[in-house]
Amino acid sequence: MTPDSPIRLLLSGPLAFGPGKAELLERIRTTGSLSAAAAEMEMSYMKAWKMVRGLNERFRKPLVTLSRGGDQHGGAVLTPAGQELLDLYRQAVAAAEKATAPALVRMRRMLAADEPDSRD
Fold first, then answer.
1. 3-state class (DSSP) for residue 76
2. 106: number of Cβ within 10 Å
3. Are 16 and 8 within 8 A, CB to CB?
4. pTM of the entire structure?
5. Where are the alpha helices (DSSP H) in the chain?
6. Where in this chain does the record put each HTH lysR-type domain (predicted)?
7. Which of 26, 76, 81, 91 could form a disulfide with 34 if both were Cys (CB 3.0 to 4.6 A apart)?
């Protein structure tokens, strides 16, 4: 998955899963903290919390388990369902990038020479 491949998968109605949600889940997995994950992404804690809550409500099994802060310092854990979703997303993105690479090269060659994204 490359940073310039903003592939978003439409799952159901308005529910989409794309690079932002994937990055949040990955950072939760590596930090063990919703607050730290949000900070690393320069996202407010509230926005990250709402995103996780929304995902947990829309899937059959929760993707992230959250525990409250306070003296115990709380935490966030990516569940097996969350890891599976992240793995499936990465597989889909890799397949899409591979399938679209030849057309993308040709499209970039069609760009004007002064266009910042023109590549050979």
1. strand
2. 9
3. yes
4. 0.82
5. 19-31, 34-40, 45-58, 80-109
6. 23-83
7. 76
What element of type H or E holds 62?
Answer: none
What domains, with CATH codes, occur in the chain? 15-109 (1.10.10.10)
Q: How far apart are CA 108 and CA 52, in angstroms?
A: 36
Question: What does the pLDDT read at residue 4?
Answer: 58
Task: Rounding to the nearest 10 degrees, give the CA dihedral for residues 27, 28, 32, 36.
Answer: 70
pLDDT at residue 69, rounded to an integer: 65
CA–CA gap between residue 78 and residue 34 (Å, rounded) = 10
Quick one: residue 106, left, alpha or beta (phi over 0 = left, psi -120 to 50 = alpha)?
alpha
What is the full per-residue pLDDT of the chain (120 aa) written as tens digits?
455 568 999 998 889 999 999 999 999 999 999 999 999 999 999 999 999 999 999 999 999 999 876 555 669 999 999 999 999 999 999 999 999 999 999 999 999 887 665 454
CB-based contacts of 6, cutoff 8 Å, min separation 6: 18, 19
